[in-house]
Amino acid sequence: MSPSNDGRKSLEAVIREVMADDTGALRDLLGGVDAFRPEEVDCALDVVADFLGGDRDYQPFILWEGDRPAGYVCFGRVPLTQTTFDLYWIAVGPGFRRKGYGRRLMEFLIDRVRQEGGRLVVSETSSLPGYADARKLYIQCGFQEKARLEGYYREGDDLIIYTRSLTGDES
């Protein structure tokens, strides 16, 4: 453990690529996020299974605080584009919020996308109240709402599309 700025002890947080042994912990992490329905958790785990099976269209990473999973991000290049990436998932587990982990995962994603020559990141999310923290994070991290499709997921649940251009962006 290392001391934090306020003198309290804090555990080291590490972001690394998801490995096969992580799937149970990842299921628990995502299942603990109130906004996610069980089928959404299953979808996220299917993406991880695809990655572990060799599909490199997805880049899933897990943030560990000590020996506990605290966050998750998954992104990938959009097929048939030169420099556009999708942010498929970003989540911080209950008990780990308000520690800056969402922003840290987003910064990690942006750095990786830049390293791969990416110039645009696109993310789709829900308009439901449970996704308010995600929408707030997007805006705080320089994303802009570009489109809204009313009733996309179901009545009263709009699809909101956010983008962040990385051209000339050094933040």
The level of helicity is: 25-40%
Radius of gyration: 16 Å
Within CATH, the superfamily carries the name: Gcn5-related N-acetyltransferase (GNAT)
How much strand content do the residues show? 35-45%
The number of domains is: 1
Architecture (CATH level 2) name: 3-Layer(aba) Sandwich
Q: Can you summarize the main beta sheet?
A: 7 strands, mixed
**DSSP, total strands:** 9
Q: What is the oligomeric state here?
A: single chain
Task: Enumerate the spans where pLDDT stays under 50 for 5 or more consecutive residues.
Answer: 1-9
Strand order of the largest sheet: 3-4-5-6-7-9-8
What does this entry look like structurally?
A hairpin with a 6-residue loop joins strand 5 and strand 6. This protein is 28% helix and 36% strand. Helix 1 packs antiparallel against helix 2. It is globular. The protein has a single domain, classed as Aminopeptidase, CATH 3.40.630.30. It is built from 4 helices and 9 strands, in the order E-E-E-H-H-E-E-E-H-E-H-E-E. With 171 residues, it is of the alpha+beta class. It has a 7-stranded mixed beta sheet with strand order 3-4-5-6-7-9-8, with helices on both faces. Strands 1-2 form a two-stranded antiparallel ribbon.
What's the gist of this structure?
This protein is an alpha+beta fold.
